[in-house]
């Protein structure tokens, strides 16, 4: 029987909060480690940064005997191809996601929306997802922008019974354990009073999230063809975030 995928938008109109990195990392975790079938819609038009990342990953594997062997081992273990990444303008993202769902058998389709999401077309894309995931960072400018846009969309969705979006899920990303917790504590309290859904997982600020496949080293974290290595997952917060989202998104 063909599955009914969960449609999720990774969205924040403020750039630099880790939307694209989290899209790739969550997609890889679910697709390669948890046995779910995942697809991604890259809305970074016209650069399509996630598609370019996959192209870089493929070139690196082609030129590395080590990573070729890693891919062979993965295939022998899970017998799965890499998850697809398709490009679409943000206004047409739901159409692209629907096409993927029609042509494939997916559990989860993640739409990575661009930083500028205040046009009417993008607004409609967001409210026509099943869930919206919004990474936030403990920075006043980021939080003011994030909450201003998110609450506008949430208020709209509550007034309209015909939109499918079920919940808006916020999670703290890039939290520096050495920095002051004033902004973090203040906005946690504000979001609690606003009755927003904030995930328990707090993802720490760590350089490992920037490490791609490279011919110069065997160390990587962010990759479209393989999940993060088990050793690198420890302390990253990614596994905890992914497992919490499995429950919130009803992916079991």
From TrEMBL:
<dbReference type="InterPro" id="IPR015223">
    <property type="entry name" value="MipZ"/>
</dbReference>
<protein>
    <submittedName>
        <fullName>Cellulose biosynthesis protein BcsQ</fullName>
    </submittedName>
</protein>
<dbReference type="Pfam" id="PF09140">
    <property type="entry name" value="MipZ"/>
</dbReference>
<dbReference type="InterPro" id="IPR027417">
    <property type="entry name" value="P-loop_NTPase"/>
</dbReference>
<dbReference type="InterPro" id="IPR050678">
    <property type="entry name" value="DNA_Partitioning_ATPase"/>
</dbReference>
């Amino acid at each position: 029987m063909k599955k009914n995928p969960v449609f999720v938008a990774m969205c924040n109109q403020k750039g630099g909060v880790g939307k694209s990195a989290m899209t790739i990392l969550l997609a890889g975790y679910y697709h390669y480690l948890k046995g779910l079938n995942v697809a991604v819609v890259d809305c970074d038009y016209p650069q399509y940064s996630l598609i370019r990342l996959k192209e870089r990953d493929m070139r690196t594997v082609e030129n590395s005997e080590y990573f070729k062997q890693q891919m062979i081992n993965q295939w022998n273990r899970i017998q799965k191809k890499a998850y697809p990444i398709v490009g679409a303008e943000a206004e047409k993202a739901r159409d692209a996601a629907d096409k993927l769902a029609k042509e494939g058998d997916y559990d989860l389709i993640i739409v990575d929306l661009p930083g500028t999401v205040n046009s009417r077309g993008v607004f409609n894309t967001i409210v026509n997802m099943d869930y919206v995931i919004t990474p936030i960072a403990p920075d006043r400018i980021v939080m003011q922008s994030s909450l201003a846009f998110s609450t506008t969309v949430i208020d709209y969705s509550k007034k309209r019974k015909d939109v499918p979006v079920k919940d808006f899920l916020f999670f703290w990303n890039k939290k520096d354990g050495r920095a002051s917790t004033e902004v973090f504590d203040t906005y946690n309290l504000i979001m609690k009073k606003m009755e927003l859904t904030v995930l328990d997982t707090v993802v720490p600020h760590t350089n490992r999230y920037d490490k791609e496949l490279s011919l110069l080293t065997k160390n990587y974290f962010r990759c479209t063809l393989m999940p993060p290595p088990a050793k690198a997952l420890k302390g990253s917060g990614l596994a905890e975030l992914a497992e919490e989202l499995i429950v919130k998104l009803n992916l079991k």
